[in-house]
Amino acid sequence: MTDPHAPALRHGYFGPQGTFTQMALASWLTADDATLAAARPFGTVALALDAVRAGEVDRVMVPIENSVEGGVSATLDALNSDDPLVIQGEVLVPITFVLAAPRGTDRAAIRGVGSHSHAWPQVRGWMAANLPSASYVPTLSTAAAAEALAGLGEKRPPYEAAVCAPMAAEVFGLEVLADDIGDNRSAVTRFVVVSRPGTVPPPSGADKTTVVIYQHDDHPGGLLELLEQFAARGINMTRLESRPTGQAMGSYCFSIDFEGHVADERVGETLMGLRRVCADVRFLGSYRRADGRPVEATRTTTDEAYADARAWLQSLRD
Length: 318
Ligand SMILES: O=C(O)C(=O)C[C@]1(C(=O)O)C=C[C@@H](O)C=C1
Description:
- There is one protein chain.
- The protein is of the alpha/beta class.
- It has 3 domains: 9-95 and 186-198, D-Maltodextrin-Binding Protein, domain 2; 98-178, 3-Layer(aba) Sandwich (D-Maltodextrin-Binding Protein, domain 2); 200-318, ACT domain (Alpha-Beta Plaits, 2-Layer Sandwich), CATH 3.30.70.260.
- 26% of the residues lie in helices and 27% in strands.
- It contains 9 helices and 15 strands.
- The strands form 3 sheets. Strands 1, 2, 3, 4, 5 and 11 form a 6-stranded mixed β-sheet that branches. It has a 5-stranded mixed β-sheet with strand order 8-7-9-6-10.
- Helix 7 packs antiparallel against helix 8 (265-277).
- The mean pLDDT is 94.
- The structure holds prephenic acid.
- This is Prephenate dehydratase.
- Keywords: Amino-acid biosynthesis, Aromatic amino acid biosynthesis, Lyase, Phenylalanine biosynthesis.
- Pathway: Amino-acid biosynthesis; L-phenylalanine biosynthesis; phenylpyruvate from prephenate: step 1/1.
- It is an enzyme of class 4 (lyase).
């Protein structure tokens, strides 16, 4: 049970208002949390994560993975640098884009379109078919593109329209010139709630764990060695990406999500295996998966199977 006298957690998100990330936070907050209006927007993912590290807020919502464009590098890299952070939970948000502009804008007058770098590739086909001569102008977020058009920014932006969420068009009083312009109508983005390390949510039976792994050196079979740790314990991976470490050309780490909770025996054994064969393993949290799908262990990888094997080994040693 939550303590009714405990202060509400202070939340932040990758903003400004009207981002898909704010929508993710709205669906995450419960009646016990402070309201969405009290949540602080941060203009970049790195600023949002730094605010948690500095203790300015307790939790922030950031995008991590899109079903069309893949991993959000800014988040993967910022989660992985500086002081440790952990993921407390995840949210899935269906992504619907609109083309929005100040009221009265003539579509024929649009020369530039502003949006986030992860949004643009998701509307590329629509743009090529409908606004082939418009050039793309990158902005910090989809909502930042809309906000600047509304004249709230310091100066006029170098574009006439924005690709953003319907909510951003509404918040910043823009006119929707075209609805539902995503090339893939079933696009979904996954967002994560991040805090400083301290508590790990209890196992729910439908959990995921995120780690970043650094290998000792570049050698034949290095990746296989690492994958074997998962395969041998019947663990399903749900995302695997290599990211440059930035230390030297060809130096990569692996960012991995897999099914199970750090409290599960098979997950513990896998983490120990990784720790043995790799130079470093950064634990980024165990949390309930957004779709709530239960994680099934195979007959040979249940907690009971591990406990039985451990008891047997102990009896031999005794
Ligand atoms: O710019 C926003 O509105 C965001 O919340 C970021 C973000 C992302 O980084 O993927 C979220 C969902 C969309 O796929 C496009 C942009």
